[in-house]
From TrEMBL:
Keywords: GTPase activation. This is PH domain-containing protein. GO terms for molecular function: GTPase activator activity; phosphatidylinositol-3,4,5-trisphosphate binding. PROSITE patterns: PH_DOMAIN (PS50003), RA (PS50200), RHOGAP (PS50238). Residues 1-85, 96-194 form the PH domain. One of its GO terms (biological process) is signal transduction. Residues 566-577, 612-622 have a biased composition (Polar residues). Residues 198-379 form the Rho-GAP domain. Residues 566-595, 610-641 are annotated as: Disordered. Residues 408-501 form the Ras-associating domain. One of its GO terms (cellular component) is cytoplasm. It comes from Danionella cerebrum. InterPro entries: Arf-Rho-GAP_ANK-PH_domain, PH-like_dom_sf, PH_domain, RA_dom, Rho_GTPase_activation_prot, RhoGAP_dom.
């Protein structure tokens, strides 16, 4: 680094050998600046200590400058940033930024075109704006990223590197103006999104501000330890525990705890070890005398009030982590009849972790025991949430291959189009998540744009893939998944996101529906159960014609057999068709494949079918969704059909190629 005299005027940054020279030896057009990287710490160079900054230019050049004082450094970086950042992105100049510049980007809701945006990296936050007057500034919390990956995309004849970031359902794609500035942003974002020491606030977080290491260990223990005797009292292998702690510290997002690779005792010791060795105690060391003195209050309700007031003074990450841990321990003790871990035993184990003290005292254990017992009251958990936890506990003790997150969400494997490892996504299913929301989340996680003509929906697949049905777009996923408990092998069931085959339709589809005829032998079950039970399905012949779905027990023509099945009073909850207008605006590109049905006698009316909807029945071995009602056989004495129905049936069979020869 050599000393130069610099000036900035007229949109150019010029530099001279010294201040007496009239002509510059070089200059930079500020319009060519794509990124400004600012180093706020002092660097030692051959010319002495300086505060440096770098200019990344569209011409593929990188220039480094240094100021002798922090004040001069701040003045120069602010002046340069103000010169090349447009006024509509002025909000980014107010931040104590480390990098500021422009990048190409795409968001999850608009993946068709790259847009130009302005970005500023501030600590572990990425601020950005498009520059459009009607759009507000966006912020990504980099510590909370669920995914951070780089891939190569083909744009025309050029291969470009793209950075993918997913945070709380928001997906952002970035690529640089040049290779140099992309490398700058990638490395800086990766560093900001990583673990910073052992402090709770420096960890990679989930969306609820709980460190991923805590979140992952809780989920694993809930899945595999809820029914395990003396869980948290058995010791793991010190070497394996130390390695897990190093892996989480390096990049917690890539650590996947699997029962085939990790032992339960190692994971429990990893959780306890992290809490014990973190730089700040979960319950805050400075509050230790207050926690202990609260025990002087004999009335438990008054003690709990004091605990609640102390918790409110904790940092946000401490509060959220404490809530997640207490919910987990509350779950564990609710199954103490199986795992032999009472609240008292759990308190003895975790008191030294919560307070970061050697061993444990009766007073510390009593405080933790109070916190576990009163978790519901302290964190204002409502009755519905408590019932949900009990239901989940019941479910997980009967079905061992499921994971629950600390927030009570079901962590579930969802497959895109096929049940193959590379098609699998791990999705958090909250108690209120609907079928259409799951489809959107899966597609966004896989980076797949939803086209208008594509009708994506969620299917439940059971009986080892032999049976599937589309879920209604408003149907709650968790409620249906919990029904799998009654299956003989719940682990054989899974969720699948896919498009309907041949689902492309035109605007005139409704007008042409009368000319459409489809006949097929299908499996049919008459009953009100939501769960598909294979042993209750029967072979039936179904015909779709003239906006009607006709159900036949068997097929013989020319009046030689009777149509014996009648369908009445079908449930309206699970629809066979629906007006697209009933869909939420944000979900018009999705179709559930299930809708409402008005059924009488032998007909299911399909009215006002719009171009974005499809009849929700499945061919081959896929049954209709929940056609409930009464089934009555027509008497043998009424064996002949009315002549008009016989004629109609003959037309259908002729057009579907299934007409039988007259043997008379």
């Amino acid at each position: 680094m050599v000393r130069r005299w610099c000036t900035m005027e007229g949109g150019f940054l010029s530099y001279y050998d010294n201040e007496r020279m009239a002509a510059p030896i070089g200059r930079v057009d500020i319009r060519d600046v794509v990124s400004l990287a600012i180093n706020n710490t002092e660097s030692i160079t051959e010319t002495g200590p300086v505060f440096t900054f770098e200019l990344y230019l569209g011409s593929q050049r990188v220039l480094q400058f240094g100021a002798e004082t922090s004040e001069a450094h701040q003045d120069w970086t602010h002046a340069i940033a103000k010169s090349f950042v447009p006024p509509r992105a002025d909000a980014l100049l107010k931040q104590d930024r480390e990098i500021i510049g422009r990048l190409h980007y795409k968001e999850g809701h608009d993946l068709y075109y790259w847009r130009m945006g302005w970005f500023a990296l501030v600590g572990s936050e990425l601020h950005f704006c498009s520059g459009d007057e009607d759009e507000e500034e966006g912020v990504l919390q980099l510590k909370r990223l669920q995914e951070l990956t780089v891939s190569t995309h083909i744009e025309g004849e050029e291969n470009i590197e793209v950075l993918l970031m997913v945070e709380s359902g928001r997906t952002l794609y970035l690529h640089g103006i040049t290779k140099q500035d992309f490398a700058l942003w990638h490395s800086s974002i990766q560093l900001a999104a990583g673990t910073d020491g052992m402090a709770l606030g420096g960890q990679q977080m989930n969306k609820n501000d709980v460190p991923i290491i805590v979140h992952s260990c809780i989920a694993f223990v809930t899945q595999y330890g809820l029914c395990h005797e003396r869980i948290y009292q058995k010791n793991g292998d010190p070497g394996r525990v130390a390695q897990l702690l190093r892996d989480f510290s390096k990049d917690a997002r890539v650590v996947k705890l699997r029962v085939q690779e990790h032992r339960l005792e190692d994971v429990t010791d990893t959780l306890k070890g992290f809490l014990f060795h973190s730089e700040d105690a979960l319950l805050a060391k400075e509050l230790y005398p207050f926690w202990i003195s609260a025990l002087d209050e004999q009335d438990e309700k008054l003690r709990v009030q004091k605990y609640s007031s102390y918790i409110q003074t904790l940092p946000k990450v401490n509060r959220s982590t404490l809530a997640a841990l207490l919910q987990h321990l509350y779950r564990i003790q609710r199954c103490s009849h199986i795992n032999q871990m009472s609240t008292e035993k759990l308190a003895c184990v975790f008191s030294s972790c919560f307070f970061q003290t050697d061993g444990h005292t009766a007073q510390e254990a009593q405080v933790v025991e109070d916190l576990i017992n009163n978790y519901v009251h302290i964190f204002s958990v409502n009755e519905e949430q408590v019932r949900q936890m009990e239901k989940e506990n019941s479910f997980i003790t009967r079905w061992k291959d499921t994971t629950f997150s600390p927030a009570g969400d079901l962590i579930f494997e969802v497959y895109l189009e096929k049940k193959e490892p590379e098609k699998c996504c791990l999705i958090k299913i909250s108690p209120n998540m609907r079928s259409d929301e799951l489809a959107v989340s899966t597609l966004e996680m896989k980076g797949i744009p939803v086209k208008v003509q594509d009708l994506w929906t969620t299917f439940e697949v059971i009986e080892n893939g032999e049976m599937e049905r589309p879920l209604h777009y408003k149907e709650k996923i968790l409620e249906q998944v919990l029904e799998w408990r009654s299956l003989e092998d719940p682990s054989s069931a899974f969720l699948l996101i896919k498009k309907y085959s041949g689902s492309k339709m035109t605007d005139s589809f409704s007008d042409k529906l009368k000319d459409f005829i489809k006949g097929e032998q299908l499996k049919f079950k008459d009953g009100s159960s939501k769960l598909l039970l294979g042993n209750k399905f029967q072979d039936r012949y179904l015909v779709l014609q003239d906006k009607k779905l006709l159900l036949y027990k068997d097929i013989k023509v020319k009046g030689k057999s009777a149509l014996t099945t009648t369908i009445e009073d079908s449930s309206r909850q699970n629809q066979l068709s629906a007006d697209e207008g009933n869909l939420p605006d944000s979900q018009h590109k999705l179709a559930s494949g299930a809708g409402s049905a008005d059924v009488s006698k032998l007909e299911i009316m399909i009215d006002d079918l719009q171009s974005q909807r499809r009849p929700s029945f499945q061919q081959d071995n896929s049954p209709l969704r929940e056609i409930s009602g009464r089934k009555s056989a027509m008497s043998n004495s009424a064996g002949k059909l009315p002549q008009n129905l016989i004629n109609e049936l003959n037309v259908v069979l002729n057009k579907t190629g299934r007409a039988q020869k007259d043997n008379s």
